[in-house]
Amino acid sequence: MSLQELQKWIQYHRWRVHKICDNLQEIDTLRFLQPLKGSFATLSHLVGHIVSAESIWLARMNNEPQKFPKYEYFENTQIASNTWKSVTEEFMHKLQNLTEQELSGSFSYSNSSGRIFENTYNDALMHIFDHSTYHIGQIAWLMRSIDIVPVSTNYIFYLREKQS
Fold it and tell me: The domain 3-163: what is its CATH number?
């Protein structure tokens, strides 16, 4: 994927993160922290997982020390939204400073078990978008389960909004 195409994806990702963060503001703190059945203890933990993963991958790409997990959960939706938006902006900044050559280049990092891996920036970024998409679907499902109508974050809606 070219740098131009990847920048299109990060713009879309930024749009959907902002949409979801705005949608999260409809949830009171009790429901955000309410125990749930499923992969994550609460909606807060799910959002914390997504933000942690993005933050960890950003640290890896910047060759910075990593903490596992960085954000286990958030106390409320405002803190969660502000943090997620901030991490997304850091990704925007990272991509604006990558060249085509760097994008196809690789970087080394260790996973949470200390095992060393190497990936291209391109592959890592595609993984991040894919991982977020999976969990964004879970957020929508969990929001429905607490009687909140989730915002649609499908790519076509992003394009339609951009056109209007």
Answer: 1.20.120.450
